[in-house]
């Protein structure tokens, strides 16, 4: 297959395959390994404080010879008012009880102790460190940030989950769209958590391809030649793979969590707001069931900040029943080999692909 297209030129890679940004899973080593497969590596920075972003970018620069993308969360923060204060107290109390019933020692933060990241500080670091490819999710950047990054000749990749969001990204001057299909692992990148599209990614992809004039990366369920070629036929020029790399050598997931993923069954997959306050796809467990039944889920990022200590304790105790284990609707084998080998295998599968004869 001839892989060269507008994206390979814009991103300066041989293959328009993107190692998905995955906060908590992606590492500088994973980015470097993706670039060794001549694909684009993405360093997830989520809502990490600016100093941590800087250290991670510098570490990645030290081990990766090729340019890479960085990825952050652009979320509009809800105001702290009396109603949020009251809900926070209740959810915190509920979690304290739940943790102690399950022998988990957790020190849950008070609302006043929570530190939130302003994405503008992260952008300052990204410009300072001269990162030239920048992707974001959970919303669109404000126009000043877009202008600033463009003056710095940064290529901008905006995540969307609907036709409306894709049009908004295009109108604001974003260079590339990353369309996240409904089956994608991890958080849905919708702009508005309470108004997100349920339309299947394939339907949106063909519509965006017809009516939006910037290149499209597709994310969600790409795990072999057939799925990659199917989204290419619908108009995608780039192919973002996440779940396929969760078990890899460079994934930050501990071995017990990788094992849990390898045992997962389709019927265990769920879309839930219970860990963060935003919808995310992963494996159902005791925590999700209890949290959903409580009806006490706070809005993002407060739910996320509140459950962080619980997830940390579950990790220390190797307890997958209280850990967020995100993965997409298609469960791959979660190979434990290197990210480079997994991506090279995907490329070679596409290059040697022979369609199955049609049944007459
Ligand atoms: C564990 C995990 C963490 C993720 N974290 C992020 C993130 O930090 N930023 C982001 O834009 N997308 C994130 N995503 C979504 C991926 O970038 C991508 O859209 C998705 O993995 C594609 O679907 P797939 O998992 O079926 O390949 C995450 C996905 C997973 C599985």
TrEMBL record:
Family: Belongs to the nitronate monooxygenase family. NMO class I subfamily.
Cofactor entry: FMN
Reactions performed catalytically: 3 propionate 3-nitronate + 3 O2 + H2O = 3 3-oxopropanoate + 2 nitrate + nitrite + H2O2 + 3 H(+)
Keywords: Detoxification, Flavoprotein, FMN, Monooxygenase, Oxidoreductase
Pfam families recorded: NMO (PF03060)
Gene3D superfamilies: Aldolase class I
Listed name of the protein: Propionate 3-nitronate monooxygenase
Organism: Galbibacter pacificus
SUPFAM superfamilies: Inosine monophosphate dehydrogenase (IMPDH)
Lineage: Bacteria, Pseudomonadati, Bacteroidota, Flavobacteriia, Flavobacteriales
GO molecular function: monooxygenase activity
């Amino acid at each position: 297959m001839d892989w060269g297209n507008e994206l390979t030129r814009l991103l300066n890679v041989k293959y328009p395959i993107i190692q998905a940004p995955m906060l908590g899973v992606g590492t500088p080593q994973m980015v470097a390994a993706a670039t060794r497969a001549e694909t684009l590596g993405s360093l997830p920075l989520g809502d990490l404080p600016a100093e941590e972003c800087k250290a991670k970018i510098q570490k990645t620069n030290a081990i990766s010879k090729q340019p890479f993308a960085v990825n952050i969360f652009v979320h509009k923060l809800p105001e702290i008012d009396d109603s949020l204060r009251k809900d926070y107290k209740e959810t915190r109390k509920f979690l304290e009880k739940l943790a102690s019933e399950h022998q988990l020692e957790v020190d849950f933060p008070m609302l006043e102790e929570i530190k939130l990241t302003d994405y503008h500080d992260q952008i300052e670091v990204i410009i300072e460190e001269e990162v030239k490819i920048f992707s974001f999710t959970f919303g669109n950047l404000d126009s000043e940030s877009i202008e600033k990054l463009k003056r710095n000749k940064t290529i901008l990749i905006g995540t969307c989950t609907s036709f409306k969001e894709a049009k908004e990204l295009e109108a604001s001057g974003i260079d590339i769209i990353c369309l996240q299909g409904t089956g994608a692992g991890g958080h849905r990148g919708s702009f508005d958590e309470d108004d997100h599209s349920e339309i299947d990614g394939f339907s949106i992809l063909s519509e965006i391809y017809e009516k939006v004039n910037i290149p499209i990366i597709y994310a969600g369920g790409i795990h072999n030649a057939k799925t990659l070629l199917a989204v290419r036929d619908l108009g995608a020029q780039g192919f973002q793979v996440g779940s396929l790399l969760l078990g890899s050598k460079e994934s930050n997931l501990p071995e017990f969590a990788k094992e849990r993923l390898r045992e997962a069954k389709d019927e265990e997959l769920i879309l839930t707001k219970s860990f963060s306050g935003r919808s995310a796809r992963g494996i159902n467990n005791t925590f999700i069931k209890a949290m959903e039944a409580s009806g006490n889920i706070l809005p993002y990022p407060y739910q996320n900040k509140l459950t962080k200590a619980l997830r940390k304790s579950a990790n220390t105790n190797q307890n997958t029943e209280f850990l967020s284990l995100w993965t997409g609707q298609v469960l791959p084998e979660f190979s434990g080999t290197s990210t480079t080998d997994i991506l090279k295998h995907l490329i070679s599968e596409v290059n040697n692909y022979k369609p199955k004869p049609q049944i007459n």
